[in-house]
Amino acid sequence: MPSTSPAPDTRPCIGIITADSQSLGPKHFAGLGIIRPPRAVIGLQGAEEFPAVFLGSKTTFDPVKVQREMIQASRTLLQDYPQVGAVILECTNMPPYARAVQHDSGLPVFDVLTMIHYVYQVVSR
């Protein structure tokens, strides 16, 4: 008799690192025409430095500490969702850390600057 439980999804998927995973919901994805939102989403709301600066009112920050938090978020994302094959850094404050995340994870990393460069290349030929 075949199993009635669905097989685990082993297809590669895109993982998202965002500032606050509680603030990124189905309505955001629906606005992009995405009916089935990705499950592989992790937020930095539990980190120390990133949310204090970019979500709070702290006026100075330690970029090395933020980089460590970004790398840790990437590692947690890949541990929780091993099927992730690429990473999107959703927050506009994250592009400076894309290289570190890519180097540590070995995966392609996309951010707002990636999209800007892509659009520019498409329209400027």
Summarize the structure.
With 125 residues, this protein is of the alpha/beta class. It is built from five helices and four strands.
How would you describe this structure to a colleague?
- It is a single chain.
- The chain is an alpha/beta fold and 125 residues long.
- The protein has a single domain, classed as Rossmann fold (3-Layer(aba) Sandwich), CATH 3.40.50.
- It contains five helices and four strands; from the N terminus they run βαβααβαβα.
- The protein has helices at 26-30, 49-54, 63-80, 98-105, 112-123, and strands spanning 13-18, 41-43, 84-89, 109-110.
- α4 links the parallel β3 (84-89) and β4 (109-110).
- α3 crosses α4.
- It is globular.
- The model is unreliable at 1-7 (pLDDT under 50).
Question: Helix count?
Answer: 5
CATH-scheme architecture: 3-Layer(aba) Sandwich
What is the H-and-E element order? EHEHHEHEH
Please estimate the helix content. 25-40%
How would you classify the helix and strand content by structural class? alpha/beta
As for the CATH topology, it is Rossmann fold
Tell me the number of strands. 4
* Main sheet properties: 4 strands, parallel
Q: How much of the polypeptide forms β-strand, as a percent range?
A: 5-15%
The Rg value, from CA coordinates, equals: 16 Å
Can you tell me the residue ranges where pLDDT is under 50 for at least 5 consecutive residues? Answer: 1-7
Q: Order of strands across the biggest sheet? A: 2-1-3-4
N-to-C span: 58 Å
Mean pLDDT: 89
- The outline comes out as globular
Count the domains. 1
